[in-house]
Amino acid sequence: MANDDKFKKVISHAKEYGYVFQSSEIYDGLSAVYDYAQNGAELKKNIRDYWWKAMVQMHDNIVGIDAAIFMHPTTWKASGHVDAFNDPLIDNKDSKKRYRADVLVEDHREKILQKINKDIAKAKKRFGDAFNENEFRSTNGNVLRRQKQIDEITTELTRVQEDNDLEGFRQLIIDLGIVCPVSGSKNWTDVKQFNLMFGTQLGASADNSTTVYLRPETAQGIFVNFLNVQKTGRMKIPFGIAQTGKAFRNEIVARQFIFRMREFEQMEMQFFIKPGTQKEWFAYWKDTRLKWHKSLGLGEENYRFHDHEKLAHYADAATDIEFNFPFGFKELEGIHSRTDFDLKQHEEFSGKKLQYFDHEDNESYTPYVLETSIGLDRMFLAVFSNALVEETLEDNSTRTVLKLPAVLAPTKAAILPLVRKDEALTTMAKDIVNDLKWEFNVAYDEKDAVGRRYRRQDANGTPFCITVDGESIENRTVTIRHRDTMEQKRVKIEELRDIIKKEVDIKEWLMRAE
Question: Is the pTM of this model over 0.85?
Answer without folding.
Answer: no
